[in-house]
């Protein structure tokens, strides 16, 4: 396995406040890693630094050996809010108005993948919340990025839609061999989807848990998954 | 089923006619009031006599000439002022250096009622076409500037961040994210500037002109030619409504995503 | 939905194209067709005045062209606007009433009287309604009189009141512009109105009014003058001469062709024929170079204005006069 992302002694401070302290992390090609932790623990901060939207106060982040020191266009972020452009049709949101045949074909096949081919020509206004998130997912997958960064993309969805979207994302990521970092505060979600779970607490990475039961839904595997969830919950709520 | 459909159609036609009932009723009332003698026709001429006056002025070639000259001044002034306002608003919206350089000055100038500049404009540019067009341009510049600037600076920063993160080129970022995001506000500026365009033009044409609708109106005023005064008022109303209609339809076409 | 939009697009596009075409037509009309080799002379005038007659008749421009001058006429709504254009050098000559230059000269504008025309004396003065009970100027005591500040009517009021042995505090003066005054007078909001033709003639014809005192009686003659910027006048005596000569020829024509003149003015001023006839019949047109007598006449205005604190500086008219001969 090849190493894609290296986070080395990274600290991020806003003024005097440490948002993330001395973080070290490696993500390998093809991995699906989840980042969990309480609100304000520094998850988004780490993700935004990997995306190059924020620079570390000290330390270094590398992607495939290259230092990330400006906007990282080799990574695609799927934000918590869909951030679709309301003045472009669903297809144009994927292609950013590009009319080349190649782009349009790819956009249409991705829309087909997320089950929205009929909606290619409508404006995002006309879509439901879950449909918008699926468009945002398809947009993030355009031209097969080396790294997918998902920041609580399903936070705003109802439980049932959420489960469907989890399946969809996982299925796509495995089938197309994406490397993915998923930020979530839902530990069940993390354990269902990721092969490794990283726990952030008080601005520090405190634990990394391997999860051999990723994506499995047999009764036995689900019991094992629940065990891991409880273990992680214990870490998070444990008194220092 | 069929019946409700046709009923709906009649309803929608009625709804479209509704805004016109009051103006039409007023005009009819006005005509009656003059005919019966409730108001003196030498002060307030009847709508029909105003119309007849319009027809005779049209036939003599005076009306088409003055309308076309006013339209020329209005459009050129709007193009120059609106264009300049857009460019300045755009530059200041995207560049911090430009903003620091220009914004304070423009905000200061903006607060001067532009009609107060008439003496200065006459002093610098004389009384020819340039002066009149410049006045219209100054009038149109500020609403376009303010709205363009405001539109561009208030585009959702999250969308801009998304665009950058998705590797859009500067041009793409502008044409697909910033400009469409600012467009509703910019079009509001266009509508407002069109209104200012007409009001400024009337005043500009009263300063010293020998043509244009504003000239026709002041000239008529001097000799208490009420029919022509009313005609000019009506022409302004029509031109104003027409340009507003164009702007509104433009909004509907360009902002069909809303 | 899409189809409706494209119909609308075409419609709007058509409207915009039409607008641009009409505007282009307008632009063409604003372009001067005068040739470039001639010396340009720009003359300011007001509707219905001596130059308006010349402009409508057409002879003046032709004769000036032969003499080597290309004349452009610019119309103004009042003397004040014309003075401003003169001060800025936007026009070379301006035709106005006799008192407008006085206030401008006092304010520091550098203009020169170059010619004087006929008066409107018989058509200038104070009008009252016939049934108002005002039969002589002394009856004006306690009445409300409309006038327009900065115009000859201000001078007129002072002269009339003096003649009646009254002062400005014996009457109620209201300063209204022409159109406001005419409505106020017609509606009976003011008892008397100091003004001149065609407004006076119109009041007489349509408002059952009479002229209480005219300009010859009040000695406020209301004479036409031509002024030029001082520097232009100094360097262009021959232009001034030509203007006076050809303008006077038109004036003589006007005096002998009342029928044509009346028809012309009815059309250009859009006034009732009765009103125009009354106005034309009591007026003698002329245009001459300045004389000592004229200077004395205008000096009187300057002195009265100074005494009444309408201007704050003494003006010596002779200093601002050019005698071409
Ligand atoms: N731009 C900023 N300026 C100042 N402080 C910030 C900024 N962004 C984040 N912080 C602070 O850094 C800390 C970590 O924030 P971060 O957004 O990474 O939390 P999070 O783990 O993503 O929380 P949540 O689950 O609520 O999204 C928080 O205490 C927050 O207040
Ligand atoms: Mg967060």
Automatic annotation (TrEMBL), chain A:
It comes from the Bacteria. The keyword ATP-binding applies. This is ABC transporter ATP-binding protein. Residues 5-227 form the ABC transporter domain. GO terms for molecular function: ATP binding; ATP hydrolysis activity. InterPro entries: AAA+_ATPase (IPR003593), ABC_SmlMolc_Importer (IPR050093), ABC_transporter-like_ATP-bd (IPR003439), ABC_transporter-like_CS (IPR017871), P-loop_NTPase (IPR027417). Coiled coil: none annotated. Keywords: ATP-binding, Nucleotide-binding, Transport. Transmembrane segments: none annotated. SMART domains: AAA.
From TrEMBL, chain B:
The keyword tRNA processing does not apply. Keywords: Cell membrane, Membrane, Transmembrane, Transmembrane helix, Transport. One of its GO terms (biological process) is alkanesulfonate transmembrane transport. The chain crosses the membrane at residues 12-32, 38-58, 70-91, 111-128, 177-203, 223-239. Signal peptide: none annotated. It is a multi-pass membrane protein. The keyword ATP-binding does not apply. It comes from the Bacteria. It is found in: Cell membrane. Residues 63-247 form the ABC transmembrane type-1 domain. GO terms for cellular component: plasma membrane. InterPro entries: MetI-like, MetI-like_sf. PANTHER family: ALIPHATIC SULFONATES TRANSPORT PERMEASE PROTEIN SSUC-RELATED, ALKANE SULFONATE ABC TRANSPORTER-RELATED, MEMBRANE SUBUNIT. Belongs to the binding-protein-dependent transport system permease family. This is ABC transporter permease subunit.
Automatic annotation (TrEMBL), chain C:
Residues 40-257 form the Solute-binding protein family 3/N-terminal domain. Keywords: Signal, Transport. InterPro entries: ABC_SsuA_sub-bd, Solute-binding_3/MltF_N, SsuA/THI5. Pfam families: NMT1. It comes from the Bacteria. GO terms for cellular component: membrane; periplasmic space. It is found in: Periplasm. GO terms for molecular function: ATPase-coupled transmembrane transporter activity. SUPFAM superfamilies: Periplasmic binding protein-like II. Its main location: periplasm. Belongs to the bacterial solute-binding protein SsuA/TauA family. Part of a binding-protein-dependent transport system for aliphatic sulfonates. Putative binding protein. This is Putative aliphatic sulfonates-binding protein.
